[in-house]
Description:
mainly beta
Amino acid sequence: xxxxxxxxxxxxxxxxxxxxxxxxxxxxxxxxxxxxxxxxxxxxxxxxxxxxxxxxxxxxxxxxxxxxxxxxxxxxxxxxxxxxxxxxxxxxxxxxxxxxxxxxxxxxxxxxxxxxxxxxxxxxxxxxxxxxxxxxxxxxxxxxxxxxxxxxxxxxxxxxxxxxxxxxxxxxxxxxxxxxxxxxxxxxxxxxxxxxxxxxxxxxxxxxxxxxxxxxxxxxxxxxxxxxxxxxxxxxxxxxxxxxxxxxxxxxxxxxxxxxxxxxxxxxxxxxxxxxxxxxxxxxxxxxxxxxxxxxxxxxxxxxxxxxxxxxxxxxxxxxxxxxxxxxxxxxxxxxxxxxxxxxxxxxxxxxxxxxxxxxxxxxxxxxxxxxxxxxxxxxxxxxxxxxxxxxxxxxxxxxxxxxxxxxxxxxxxxxxxxxxxxxxxxxxxxxxxxxxxxxxxxxxxxxxxxxxxxxxxxxxxxxxxxxxxxxxxxxxxxxxxxxxxxxxxxxxxxxxxxxxxxxxxxxxxxxxxxxxxxxxxxxxxxxxxxxxxxxxxxxxxxxxxxxxxxxxxxxxxxxxxxxxxxxxxxxxxxxxxxxxxxxxxxxxxxxxxxxxxxxxxxxxxxxxxxxxxxxxxxxxxxxxxxxxxxxxxxxxxxxxxxxxxxxxxxxxxxxxxxxxxxxxxxxxxxxxxxxxxxxxxxxxxxxxxxxxxxxxxxxxxxxxxxxxxxxxxxxxxxxxxxxxxx
Length: 727
């Protein structure tokens, strides 16, 4: 017999239906994929009895949909079909329904009840995940499997009975926000996934599972006092997160502590591990509140992140029996001061509280060690991932010549780290090596480095100089900015570099700007890009929405012009020979900026202004005569450019017959408003604050010769101690 042709109600047809209540015409056999996706107007839908299937994503994100009928002939509902239908409270599923896809009703936050047809055998992954109101669920005897995260984050679900037809319970099936206080595992269940009943007390203050009870006839699992074990009670699989007791003694005979077995057990403050234990699996005690832990002799393997984020433990002793310590086993232990290894251990050792493997790899330095300086022992060749992460007491780290490799984020988030001495033997600086090192101001790249990841210095908010050894064959530095060896590509401008200036001119010698080069430089008002730049990598200036202060000065039709337009950056087209916009230079303005910033350790920030074409000729002559830029700042911390954007500024100058007089009037107006006017050029800095410096009669301002060194302490005495200092 010839199969009837399927007639699909497509998204194109669905768009023709308007209003809050819609009716799908008779004759169609399937609601097509994405048919009503994102329709926020529809509140009710009537489907014809001819419909036999609903495809994936058919009603996804129909936020206002409150009523829909599922025809009796429907046998299949695709994945995500009703996902995020926030207003649906009840759906009646037909008896003949055989298949419901993953996430089909996920995030239906108003759904209170659901029925399961007799033909359905599997509750697929995340089918009811984050159904906040779901409270009435009866799982029938035809269901054999409950998928991963099926009822995860269902805070209104206070009780559920798992029938003896179920053989499999997936990962996280009843995890996260949960009001179930106990769960009963029937004899039929032969497989329970990871974190099936894991509910974090920190994420929710709901009652949560405190007891896991297993049928005595179950061939695979057992329980003792509400704690889940394998049948032989040699593996402790899950300690319920919401048990109230403070101390727990693991039964003698347990050989293995399962993955995430005690994860987030915040009520436990003490645990006793018996000598029978040979293995502590990954994440077994992650984020526990123990103040101390004894790892007994006999333990051979400690898994990845086994004790990670145990914030109260101050010391760890590694017995001689341990032959394997997984990655990040003791990371993010915020109170950890020392790690000691039994001298008889053939594989692991400790040196000045640091954990070392095979005498070659430094695995971890304790987060709360009191040392301010640390010299990594000679002979170490490798430093593991996040080995010094968040070691806030450390200020200086010396890496010996024996070290040849660093892994990711080795020194990340060391808040007080001011200096790291790297040897020539280092070949690579990986991603996030110095991530969020807030006190790091400069770094020296040694001669041997041939690869620096673009994210190596992310969030180093005070890093202003990246200097490179002259012997390095791959990299160089131009006044603190990282470049390739022959200075044709700008690779990375340190984040704090832009604190020292608000305007930057890229020299003519460069033809390329690397990925993320200026993405962190949020203080630049403008960057001038020459015609020579023919390549600008994605993300070179970050996102225009984040770096909204930046204006790109560029030539019309150039790579920079196209880049600025396509990524919605503010930009200005400059004339070919306009020195006011584009100074002819083969060097950056670094020297000028250093001389300038030395004068202002206080919170005041100077905003450069452009010499606009609209200015009267007298103003233009004055600026050209002295090589000046004009600017002022609001001492409250908000910045504004003094230019054609400022009507008050323009009013003063447009009406002035004497530019010098106008300048003085504006200066007085700024002072009256609690602001200051700053004038500076490459060789002189003018500021009326410092009366101890030479007085320029012609300008009526005090000035400091650009080459003179400034005693910072002398200037800081003039500053309000309560003000934040910018250096």
